[in-house]
Amino acid sequence: MTVPIIIGVDLGATNIEAAAVRDGEILKSKKKKTRPEKGIEAVLDRIEKTIRTVFEKMDAEASDFSAICIGAPGAVEEETGIVRSAPNLGWDNVPLGEALHDRFGIPVMVDNDVNVGVVGEHVHGAGKGALDMIGIFVGTGIGGGLIIDGAPHHGWRGAAGEIGHVIVKPHGRTCGCGRDGCVEAYASKTAMEAIIHEEMEKGRETEVFEIMEDKGKKKLTSSVIEASLEAEDLLMEEVLQNAQYYLGILTANLVNVLDPEIIVYGGGVVERLGESFLKPIERTARQHYLQRRGAEQIRIVPAELGDDAGPVGAAVVAQRRLRASVG
Known about the structure:
Blueprint: E1 6-11, E2 15-22, E3 25-33, H1 40-58, E4 68-72, E5 75-77, E6 82-86, E7 91-94, H2 96-104, E8 108-112, H3 113-124, E9 133-138, E10 142-148, E11 151-152, H4 184-187, H5 189-201, H6 208-214, H7 222-230, H8 234-258, E12 262-266, H9 268-273, H10 275-287, E13 299-302, H11 309-326
Helix pairs in contact: 3-11, 5-8, 8-10
């Protein structure tokens, strides 16, 4: 049987990446800026243009592909393809699946962007072959996903995997979700930047914002973090170490509850800093494992697919749903 070619799309607040994917291999791809400030219709137009550029690169048209699957940032209703809430896009109740189906006329599936990224890493990346896996992505926020018995675990309400909102410090910093003490309030790039600001107001010195200006960055990015560490900025080192500590606590909690074979860490910070970022997390986690027997066999590793995890994972999700629909 011919392996289908699927259009996998990773929709982020900054970029849209669309790719033609066959059996985990990206054949052709295209990226565009998302520009959510221009409104919903403008973003839908940009998604369409990104996908059609892939069609052109493949010298193909919509009917040559089995489906389109898009990973969207936020709460997604998989059955209807409605993005119920995507704060980074400013979206509420947007019928993304229907809108794209109207434009292309082929099956369109929608899922959460982190979920599809985790699926990509599980099937074709760092988690390949594992039965139970946890994916944790460190970026603007902290995203995550669960693979249980070889399949994505969404929970009975579809709300499982909100790893960034595991509380690691009761009565701690207020998170963007409104609760106190979430790991995202300590270990995301957004939180680290806020903490550095707060410490500066207390009189601490840092070169972080000078480095941001030199690099032309308006926010704390992975490259700024790396440059600040290379400059031996003490405040950046301290804030990062705290983030690693709380990620270690998070990892230990997840291991104690789910006992996975592997924890795959991804996102820009991990891609930039690699093993040097993960080693302190692993040390802290191991100190807090309840069951020590065989704990050394639990692997904590960096993701392998990078930005391609989204489109590759989306293609896997689409292929599975297509099989289910005819099975």
